[in-house]
């Protein structure tokens, strides 16, 4: 199956055929008119790359440092909820693919496998993404789980204190799902291979809620109840509070302005991720790549700046690094791979993007990602 995937779009198409529509649309869709979702990818076209000839370096080095570690590739796997619903043990499969590629994976709060399961299955660099709940005791418990699993980095996601409207999900009744109804079962049965795989692995439930029966039974009810528990009044004071709770690396994910990025640094964040949640929240917000220069300018080296949103090509990654991002987080790109072909699909996407980055560097006459970082915007032209 992975051989038929020669780019991210292929994986997307296969995923659409393999998993139930209700889940595919949840992955693929964005807020309202999906303008920001489209802009994230389209705006890479604002820059072109410098082509240089007759100076191709042999054995380009794609390793680079971000989030306190020398990583084999300039991109990592960012937090995506419910990987375990797109493939059985989806989080474990994804973590294994990340560890094999020697890149970090960030596990979402909304995961079927827990961070403890991931640590048991992988010695790789694990990160944990936290949605801060009104119940701070529970938030503390989640953080303790990440500490026990030796997660190196904690992300607090700040762009989802309320959930926007994703019309595909409304149409499919995704948000209203609480349990399996006959109608839903009939729709799921249209994807028999997926059904068989899920049946074999047992009823999925949210790993982090294992000891919390008050959230209900099964992933659907648990997810609804957990979402309701997210604190809509989260403020910058809470980032400072988190800083006190967590002694590892702290990342604020979901800033889209220079001022907010500076505020995050002032509250003790080690890094920010420029993100609009993949166009799933404020439709009409700017693309992340277009905001990157503003954020770098404002932050002026006070903390590290990473980025996600719309990355589907190696050239997109090269442009973000040239503009000054220290690393890139993938979202849908690897999720399509997982939904299309499980662990092999994630591995395939990582390899394809690695090769695309490598070829791009070669054709630009660059020997490494570190050289790209040193050359910076001098290898770009505004279109
Ligand atoms: C299906 C799906 C679920 C997501 N779940 C989470 C989540 O649980 N926590 C989080 O911080 N971000 C979540 N995100 C946002 C991603 O981390 C990331 O910001 C976004 O996917 C980047 O855009 P891209 O998918 O176009 O690469 C999710 C994104 C998708 C597509």
Structure write-up:
The protein has 383 residues and is of the alpha/beta class. It has one domain: Aldolase class I (TIM Barrel). It has helices spanning 8-18, 21-28, 35-42, 83-86, 90-101, 115-121, 136-148, 167-172, 182-188, 192-201, 218-229, 236-245, 258-266, 288-299, 314-323, 332-363, 369-375; strands at 47-49, 64-66, 69-71, 75-77, 105-107, 126-130, 153-157, 249-255, 271-274, 304-308, 327-330, 380-382. An eight-stranded parallel sheet has the order 4-11-10-9-8-7-6-5. A two-stranded antiparallel sheet has the order 1-12. Helix 5 (90-101) runs parallel beside helix 16, helix 13 (258-266) packs across helix 14 (288-299) and helix 15 (314-323) packs across helix 17.
The low-confidence parts are: none
CATH class: Alpha Beta
| SSE pattern, N- to C-terminal | HHHEEEEHHEHEHEHHHHHEHEHEHEHHE
**CATH architectural category:** Alpha-Beta Barrel
- By CATH's scheme, which homologous superfamily applies? Aldolase class I
Shape: globular
Strand order of the largest sheet: 4-11-10-9-8-7-6-5
Radius of gyration: 20 Å
Q: Return the CATH topology.
A: TIM Barrel
Output the number of helix runs. 17
The ligands found in this model are: flavin mononucleotide
Number of strands: 12
Domain count, please report it: 1
Helical amount: 40-55%
- Beta strand %: 5-15%
**Mean of residue pLDDT values:** 96
Query: What structural class do the secondary elements suggest?
Result: alpha/beta
Topology:
Blueprint: H1 8-18, H2 21-28, H3 35-42, E1 47-49, E2 64-66, E3 69-71, E4 75-77, H4 83-86, H5 90-101, E5 105-107, H6 115-121, E6 126-130, H7 136-148, E7 153-157, H8 167-172, H9 182-188, H10 192-201, H11 218-229, H12 236-245, E8 249-255, H13 258-266, E9 271-274, H14 288-299, E10 304-308, H15 314-323, E11 327-330, H16 332-363, H17 369-375, E12 380-382
Helix pairs in contact: 1-2, 1-16, 5-16, 13-14, 15-16, 15-17
Bound molecules: flavin mononucleotide.
Flavin mononucleotide binds at residues 26-27, 40, 78-81, 108, 110, 129, 157, 253, 275, 277-278, 308-311, 330-333.
